[in-house]
Amino acid sequence: MVPRVRHNVMNQHRFSLVALAVVALFLAGCGQDPKTTSGDSRRTIDGIEMTWTRSGGVAGIDITVEVENSGKWTVTDTDQDETREGELGDDERKELESLVADTDLFEGGPGSDEGCADTFKDRLVFDGLELETDCGEAPNEPFADIVELLGEATET
């Protein structure tokens, strides 16, 4: 009986080690960004689907710009009850793709405009990511560049 008990203990240890290895492998894969290529920390872009909203300011504006993968955009100005459409040019699309691929875009946390009177609140949402201004200040340079690019391209 003693050898049998020892054998069961050994099996339990093996099972524990295998279970630990499986959990470790699973957790190691959880931190990986599926849109990042190996050896490169930049995200690959297979087309961009993005929403930019601007709200607030002295006049209390509420504007939404939706950009589809094709580069087609739609601007909805809730205050003016106006919708208009257009398309990004090739250079604008390339610049937008470059800015979205910039790893600095992911620096900085979510902003808060609480207690910030008369400032615009800009928010970018794409690929499951949401970034916004903090008291009117962009969280990083690529964010500010994207807002400027979309503003100029859509005349918003």
List the helices and strands and how they pair.
Layout: H1 2-30, E1 50-56, E2 61-67, E3 72-77, E4 82-87, H2 90-101, E5 120-126, E6 129-132, H3 141-154
Antiparallel strand pairs: 1-2, 1-5, 2-3, 3-4, 5-6
Protein described:
The protein has 156 residues and is an alpha+beta fold. It has two domains: 1-33; 50-154, no CATH class. It has helices at residues 2-30, 90-101, 141-154, and strands at 50-56, 61-67, 72-77, 82-87, 120-126, 129-132. The chain has a six-stranded antiparallel beta sheet with strand order 4-3-2-1-5-6, covered by helices on one side. The longest helix has 29 residues, at 2-30. The protein is globular, with a radius of gyration of 24 Å. Mean pLDDT is 75; it is low at 1-11 and 13-45.
Can you give keywords for this protein?
156 residues, alpha+beta, six-stranded antiparallel sheet, 3 helices, 35% helix, 24% strand, disordered N terminus
- The secondary-structure element order is HEEEEHEEH
Lateral arrangement of strands in the main beta sheet: 4-3-2-1-5-6
Amount of beta strand:
15-25%
So how many helices? 3
N-to-C CA distance: 82 Å
Note poorly predicted spans: 1-11, 13-45
Please state the average pLDDT score. Answer: 75
Instruction: Tell how many strands the DSSP assignment holds.
Output: 6
How is the biggest beta sheet arranged? Answer: 6 strands, antiparallel
Q: C-alpha Rg, in Å?
A: 24 Å
Helix fraction by DSSP (H/I, runs of at least 4)? 25-40%
Structural class: alpha+beta
Shape: globular
Number of domains: 2
